[in-house]
Design brief:
By secondary structure, the protein is α/β, with parallel strands linked by helices. Helix content is 36%, strand content 18%. The protein binds sulfoquinovose-uridine-C1,5'-diphosphate.
Length: 406
């Protein structure tokens, strides 16, 4: 297949591009390199040393003989360029990762809120609009989030996208219906993914676009078999207070002797998936496209659920790290249960990598190896969800006063 990977320079986009290229697909990465600009804005860098996208694709070609093409395009701003590109190349599938994906970054300031909404919603709408305009029947696979559901705690499992409901008619009968699970975002970033869902629903219904939305949990890990082929193909690894996700942060914190930064009581339960499984799921989703006229196909892309404090205790046991229970910079339920249905990917053949088998390798291969590159001052999470919360997070886990709050 000819596949356009929008956002193919990012944390999940890059290993996905390699994985699909290795399986013989023609891969075109469309990316505006915004993630690299944000590193510069925040004064952080990936824990793993990351080459330019041009150098990465050159190394891939040198090692495998396969080409990955790169096109510098800003989907949110360059609608006409995107439309022209799609119309010239006419890919069979489009994988859409091209969104600002950090909840704390999206809550940093009013500017960051605007940026996240403008970038994410425009990128998605520009893409849908262009597909209709040029009459391209490509399968669109979008990276969404488990966060659209709001980690509900009503004592029922979260279904894969659609909730069966009974509606009472005027005649007093109960009619069964399946509706999109009620959106309940916990950050501006998560809210943009909820808005994406509505855009997809409309375009599938009105224009017959074939769309798959992957509601992904928190990705952990770094390597996939393809990123391990050469040191310069290495994936990025974020550990800073905005982009670092919880388990990867705990791993690097343990490696450098920094107290593990648990927010609040750590009673938040979240869904997780290893990066290797994430990439496999995308391949499985590509092979299982909906038909024209079908509703949006939704998968829950996760393999395990864990409570944050249990993860911290697990990492502490493995490494001897201390755990710090900190004031929570976020507005979120302090404790929640989470049961998630994920049968669809298991039925398609996904064989999950479990935390038990993967965790130690990650600590040794990545966290310890690159620990010398960590800037400790970038570890604290200083993006507060509200102005009231900001003053409560003024000190880091080592007791030092933080420079910027809110
Ligand atoms: N947390 C800590 N300590 C930390 C970092 C986070 O206790 O040092 C807590 C947070 O308060 C939160 C939980 O861990 O309760 C998860 O935070 P996270 O930063 O690992 O994940 P999140 O902000 O939810 O976002 C990440 C990705 C996002 C993806 C989402 C999937 O950045 O792109 O959509 O995970 S999900 O969480 O299922 O919505």
């Amino acid at each position: 297949m000819k596949i356009a990977v929008l956002g193919g320079d990012g944390f999940v986009g890059w290993p996905t591009s390699l994985h699909l290229s290795a399986r013989g697909h023609e891969i075109h990465i469309l990316d505006n390199l915004s993630r690299r600009w944000i590193d510069t804005e925040l004064g952080v860098q990936s824990l793993t040393p990351m080459d330019s996208i041009q150098e990465r694709t050159r190394i891939w070609h040198q090692g495998t003989g396969r080409r990955i093409h790169f096109h510098l395009i800003d989907l949110a701003r360059d609608y006409e360029i995107l439309k022209r590109w799609l119309s010239e190349h006419r890919p069979d599938a489009v994988i859409h990762f091209a969104e600002q994906r950090a909840a704390p970054y999206s809550m940093k300031s009013d500017r960051h809120k605007n940026y996240t909404v403008n970038n994410n919603v425009n990128a998605t709408h520009n893409l849908l609009n262009a597909l209709v305009e040029i009459e391209l029947d490509a399968h669109l696979v979008h990276l969404g989030t488990m966060g659209v559901y709001g980690y509900s705690n009503v004592g029922a499992a979260i279904p894969e996208g659609y909730l069966p409901v009974g509606v009472e008619t005027l005649a007093g009968e109960t009619v069964s219906q399946e509706i999109l699970y009620p959106a309940n975002p916990g950050s501006i970033y998560h809210m943009t993914k909820c808005l994406d869902q509505l855009l997809f629903q409309f375009y599938a219904k009105n224009d017959g676009l074939r769309i798959t939305d992957l509601h992904q949990g928190i990705v952990w890990g770094t390597h996939t078999p393809e990123t391990k082929l050469h040191p310069q193909l290495v994936n990025r690894f974020d550990y800073d207070g905005d982009y670092g996700t919880v388990l990867n942060r705990f791993l690097i914190q343990a490696a450098i002797g920094y107290p593990l930064t648990v927010h609040g009581t750590g009673g938040q339960t979240r869904a997780f998936i290893h990066i290797q499984d994430s990439v496999r799921c995308i391949e499985l989703a590509l092979k299982s496209a909906p038909k024209r006229g079908e509703r949006v196909k939704i998968f829950n892309q996760m393999t395990e659920t864990h409570r944050v404090r249990d993860l911290a205790e697990l990492v502490a046991r493995m490494t001897g790290a201390k755990v710090a229970y900190l004031p929570n910079p976020r507005k979120e339920a302090p404790e929640n249960e989470l049961v998630v249905r994920n049968e669809q990917f298991l039925q398609l053949g996904l064989n999950p990598t479990t935390l038990e088998e993967g965790l130690l390798a990650e600590v040794v291969d990545v966290a310890k190896k690159f620990a010398y590159r960590v800037d400790r001052s970038r570890i604290p999470s200083v993006s507060a969800w509200t102005k009231d919360i900001a003053p409560t997070i003024e000190r880091d886990p080592e007791g030092k006063r933080l420079k910027s709050v809110g």
